[in-house]
Specification:
628 residues, 6-stranded antiparallel β-barrel, 31 strands, 27% strand
Length: 628
């Protein structure tokens, strides 16, 4: 793995201003790969070359088409660019695609650049000065571009090439190496097959790193593939890190399943998004606003999808304005919070603005979340994670996917979470007050459950989990229950929980039924009526009867020998004592001996003997039952 900084330089500019010839003069590489491109003298698709600027840099250059008909290809090439090489022909000056490419660079936050004033050999000094002045005026429209150098060059004569190299080298000063401790993602811009190698894809590593032997996933489709080999500008590498263009040889997928627009990524935590909460920046100088419900083209990485725009209160977004919105995608994207993408009208196809992703798959009530979105995009890591945790309230922020949901490296988020006083419970981060809030929610749920089942002495733990599940993480809910038990704000009885002041509430009619039930079962000894018979005899609704029987069991008055046979506990205890005496001599006792002793029919005898077996009092053998 190279320890040099990876830098990607991308060309931009109007058609026929000499981008490809300039790249050829800089690198010695012909980036027009297709015969049609060379015949027409027109770049149609992306081209790539290595550019040696500095021993400490590993620089690649992406040559993009300038013709507006191929802007989709240009956008695919703009993925991951660090420095823009804006090409302006000295004999024409800035042209329409010059303006559009600059606008796209601004929307993608490409803030470093150099202008190559090409075809220097075709103009005299006065015309060159005019072209330079006009270009400077264009750059000065954005303060971020005011420091860009303008270098007159001629690809034909070689004039200005060395000053251009120096200007490009200066433009890279201060670009920080991208962290390798991040999630791997590579938007694919080319896919082909090589005999003996198999499927090969190329692209710029957006984040993280990939190594030979790694297993990567492919979006869309979810297929897995093994990395057979890696190259950076035809140089084999064991591992490639973010900020570098690379070729990846894959085993296990066909080229047709990893076309341009696909994404290679690591792990299972990435999830496709069908809705994106975004900040929209509409370009000025347009005569059409962005309207609620409008169909738009979205370009993220190398992928284009259609989407419907949802604005707050259905208000239009005026040209030059910035606003919050949601994009409802017609096909999913493998997006990450803080990603930038380009918007174009569906028809006519013109660039109208850009977006920055603030939330993946936001809920329908998203307008109330835009304050948090602002902090997630513009705040410090501490502010961002605090807001993201607050948005998820009791559901918590999953640690495993936090770097995707916040668009920041996992290591920086762990430190930020501590600074923001977040607490980790299980595999999620929560606000410091989350446990207290969850405890109150458990108490509220308990009160509702008690009211819904007033005859019950308590609530099953599973019922409490089910009540909390729609809005609370399971581990947080269980933590809250443990705290409530420790604080004696909940009481536990076997599998049931109850509020301290709770007691079963029966109507007068149910109280009478309860008393009759006790008398009937206790009077019947070992041969009480079955449950269906009890309901008919006492004229009790089955739901009421079941609740009353449950109360008798939980109070220890009766025991359920079978679901249909409830026997008084004192009668069972007496039977157990007699059985122990009967079998004390160790001789096996057949059913007939028990029938003779207790005078019971098989209807009652067999369930009672099986009950004693389950309880561990007796054990059935081939000769009969013996004591355990």
């Amino acid at each position: 793995m190279s320890d040099r900084r990876g830098i990607v330089i991308g060309t931009a500019g109007h058609v026929d201003h000499g981008k490809t010839a300039l790249v050829r003069a800089l690198t010695g590489v012909e980036t027009d790969r297709w015969l049609e491109e060379r015949k027409r003298g027109l770049t149609i698709d992306l081209g790539f070359a290595r550019l040696d600027l500095d021993p400490d840099l590993e620089t690649g250059i992406v040559d993009v088409p300038g013709h507006e008909d191929f802007l989709k290809n240009m956008l695919a090439g703009a993925t991951g660019i660090d420095v823009l090489l804006l090409v302006v022909a000295a004999d024409e000056g800035p042209m329409p695609q010059t303006h559009e490419h600059l606008a796209i660079a601004r929307l993608l936050n490409i803030r470093r650049g150099v202008v190559a004033l090409t075809k220097r050999d075709r103009v005299d000094g006065d015309w060159l000065d005019l072209a330079s002045e006009t270009t400077r005026e264009l750059l000065d429209e954005d303060s971020a571009r005011a420091s860009w150098e303008i270098v007159p060059v001629s690809a034909l004569t070689g004039e200005g090439m060395e000053p251009l190299r120096e200007a490009l080298r200066r433009s890279t000063v201060g670009i920080r190496a991208r962290g390798v401790d991040d999630r791997f993602r590579l938007p694919v811009d080319r896919s082909f097959s090589i005999r003996g190698t198999g499927t090969v894809v190329t692209g710029t590593v957006w984040s993280g790193s990939v190594g030979v032997g790694d297993t990567v996933s492919v979006f869309p489709g979810g297929n897995s593939a093994r990395v057979r080999a890696l190259q950076v500008h035809e140089d084999p590498r064991p591992r490639v890190t973010a900020g570098r263009r690379c070729a990846v040889a894959l085993v296990g997928v066909a080229p047709a399943s990893v076309e341009r627009g696909s994404v290679l990524f690591d792990g299972s935590e990435w999830k496709p998004s069908e809705r994106l909460g975004v900040r929209v920046r509409a370009l000025g100088g347009r005569d059409r606003p962005l309207r609620h419900g409008q169909r738009l083209r979205v370009y993220l990485g190398t992928r284009e999808v259609m989407a419907r725009l949802q604005t707050a209160d259905r208000r239009p977004i005026a040209p030059g304005a910035t606003a919050w919105a949601v994009l409802v995608l017609e096909a999913p994207l493998l997006a990450r919070t803080r990603d930038r993408a380009i918007l174009r009208f569906y028809s006519p196809v013109t660039t109208i603005g850009g977006i920055r992703v603030a939330e993946l798959n936001p809920p329908p009530a998203w307008p109330a979340r835009t304050g948090a979105w602002r902090q997630i995009l513009d705040g410090t890591p501490e502010e961002a994670i605090a807001e993201a945790v607050a948005l998820r309230r009791l559901r918590g922020l999953p640690v495993a996917t936090s770097s995707i949901l916040l668009g920041r490296r996992r290591s920086s988020l762990e430190a930020a979470a501590e600074e923001a006083d977040c607490v980790r419970i299980g595999d999620r981060w929560f606000a410091a007050a989350a446990t207290t809030e969850a405890m109150a929610a458990v108490e509220e749920s308990m009160a509702r459950l008690h009211a819904a089942d007033r005859r019950a002495p308590g609530v099953s733990k599973e019922a409490v989990r089910s009540a909390m599940a729609p809005f609370c993480d399971l581990e947080l809910a269980e933590t809250a229950v443990r705290r409530l038990l420790a604080d004696r704000r909940l009481v536990e009885s076997g599998p049931r929980l109850a509020l301290p002041d709770h007691a079963p509430r029966l109507t007068p009619q149910e109280e009478e039924g309860h008393a009759q039930l006790v008398r009937t079962i206790e009077a019947a000894g070992l041969q009480p009526p079955l449950v269906t018979e009890l309901g008919r005899t006492l004229r009790l609704d089955r739901a009421v009867l079941d609740d009353l029987l449950r109360l008798l069991q939980e109070s220890g008055t009766t025991k359920a020998v079978t679901p249909e046979l409830h026997v008084a506990a004192v009668a069972l205890e007496a039977m157990e004592a007699r059985v122990r005496d009967l079998l004390a001599d160790g001789a096996p006792a057949p059913p007939a001996r028990f029938k003779e002793t207790f005078g019971l029919s098989r209807k009652y005898l067999i369930p009672l003997l099986e009950y004693l077996d389950r309880k561990g009092v007796t054990r059935r053998t081939a000769e009969g039952r013996v004591l355990c």
